[in-house]
Each structure stands twice: as C-alpha cells, then as structure tokens.
Amino acid sequence: MRQIVYFLGTFVCIVCVLTACAPAASTPPVSGGNATLPVANANRGSQAASPDSTGPHDTALIVSAASDLIPAFEAIGPVFTAATGTPVVFNFGSSGLLAQQIEQGAPVDVYASANRQYVQELLDGGHVVEDSVAAYGQGRITLWLRADSALDLTTLDELSNPAVTRIAIANPEHAPYGMAARQALQRAGLWETLQPQLILGENVAATLQYVESGNVDVGIVALSLSLAAGPAGRWTLIPADLHDPIEQTLAVVTRAPQPAAAHAFVAYVNSDAGRAVMRQFGFVLPGEELHTEELHSEDSPASVLENPAP
To answer: Taking the alpha carbons of 213, 248, 291, 170 in that order, is the dihedral positive or negative?
Structure first.
C-alpha cells in the first residue's frame, strides 16, 4: 500500500523555503463577493517513495506541480521511484504561486504548470532549461457538485438559479484553472452577474475542497480531480470552446539540485507508462483526442476513453 511520508529535519527546511515560512491561516466563514478562503494542506509536500527507502532525504527529487496533478502525480511518483530508485517529494499548489517560489530561489528540480504561460515566463527569465520544456497534456474543467446536493446543475446558465448562493473557482490571478473558469463564465455572459456568489480558492484542489465540505454549492474544477473524487460528486464537462486550451507544460529548473533525475522525471511523465496514468485522469495527451461524449460523473479514472489521433 502506498504511504505518504512526511519528513522532519531536511524536509522542514525545504517546505520553509517553498512557502516562505508563512504561518497557517485559519479558515474564515464563507462569504460571497470574490472571497478567498485558505484551506489546510492546499500546498502539500509528500514523498512518493516506499517508507523503508534508504538514503538521505536531500537526494529526493523535488517536483513543484499544479494541484490538478495531485491524483496523477501521486500515482506516477511511486512507479518512477521503483524504476529509478529516486524518491520524489511533491509540492502542489497554484501554477502562478509555484512559479514565484522558483523565481525566488526555491530548491526545486521540476516545475509542472497547468499552463504554458508560466513556464514561458520562467524560461524568459532563465529559470528553466529550454530543451527540457515539454507539453504533457491538456486539461478540462467541470461543473462539480456533491453527490448529495439537492441542486441539479448541468450547464453554466443554471448557475444563475437563485438557489445557487456560492460558486467556487480557483483564483484566476494565479491559477490556470481559475483563468479557464473565468473565461467560461465570461463567454457564457455570466461573469459580472455572478460576482457576489464567487468564492476564490487558492488553487483548483482547494476549490474542490470548498464544495466537498458543503460550504459552497458548486465549483468549477479540473476534470482530473472530478474523476479522482469518484462517487463523492456529480459533474458535467464544460464545453472546451468556452475557454482557451489549458495547455499543461513542465520543465527542469535551471538550479535543480538533482538535474539528471529531473530530466528523467520529465521524460517519464511523457513515456508510455506516464501517459497511461495521465490518460486515466482525463488529460488530453499530445496526439490523442478525448471522447468527451463518453465522459460522465459516474466514470472512474480507469474508464476514461481516448483514441490516438489519425
């Protein structure tokens, strides 16, 4: 059984740099009007190695990754470790905030963004290795409700129902899935109307947590997280033409403490084994097309169907 091992000592130092040693904030009551609510463990570090692995923790590969990748990368991590012997520590969060940490010198080996923009900005600043930049999948967004919700929402237009009082999206200022949610609401003509009901999550995983907790009625979240949540929720895929493509991209950080392992991890994500995991969580892979008509909230990650493009 996979176990997540939290470090002391060296790992505490890593987390302090990644989070600038910021104190944890308490969660305030939920309110509308673009409120931003902190959630515990929105950015979390975890080791994807077996608990009996040997060697000093400072040899671990540090991967800062967008939070929509939590289920996929926590599946890939142990397999990569078994194949290479290199333990992996993940730091999940919003792509924009993770990029800021790298710019400020955080000891990160690999950066996996939920869009191309933040990787390009790091590349322009000399913070990532140019020949390591690689697209690894395209994300999708869904309208997600708890399974026990009394609401029956299948389209964005239905968010204007007076019974919907709180709608969660990731913060579009630094979270690509929040940017996509904002675009979808704008193109549907609902962005201005729904402002009083909007609750902003620090990242898309935190956004899902707000809805899971019952404090928010509905959220616009990542397809990967919707699939991973399984029977806990009901969801509808939002049409792709309502937002720009969510072109997820990763790269090796220029100052990577473990450059060889970092290049190996990037290659592994786009290997046949890595692509198989990403496919299971609904990512549209380079050269493949997602059969959106076959996706439903009853689906599990293993049942997502894709075919190679001609």
So the answer is: positive
pTM, 2 dp: 0.82
User: How many residues does the structure list for the chain?
Assistant: 310
**Residue 12 dihedral angles phi and psi, to the nearest 5°:** -60, -40
Please give the torsion angle defined by the CA atoms of residues 146, 152, 154 and 159, in that order, rounded to the nearest 10 degrees.
-90
Q: Tens place of pLDDT for every residue, the chain, 310 residues?
A: 333 333 333 333 444 444 443 333 333 344 456 665 544 334 443 444 333 333 444 589 999 999 999 999 999 999 999 999 999 999 999 999 999 999 999 999 999 999 999 999 999 999 999 999 999 999 999 999 999 999 999 999 999 999 999 999 999 999 999 999 999 999 999 999 999 999 999 999 999 999 999 999 999 999 999 999 999 999 999 999 999 999 999 999 999 999 999 999 999 999 999 999 999 999 999 888 765 555 656 655 544 433 333 2
> Cβ–Cβ contacts within 10 Å for residue 217, how many?
23
Instruction: Identify residue 191 by its one-letter amino acid code.
Output: W
- To the nearest 10 degrees (0 to 180), the angle between helices 70-84 and 272-280 is 160
Q: Judge contact between 156 and 221, C-beta under 8 A.
A: no
Amino acid, res. 41: N
Contact 64, 110 (CB under 8 A): yes
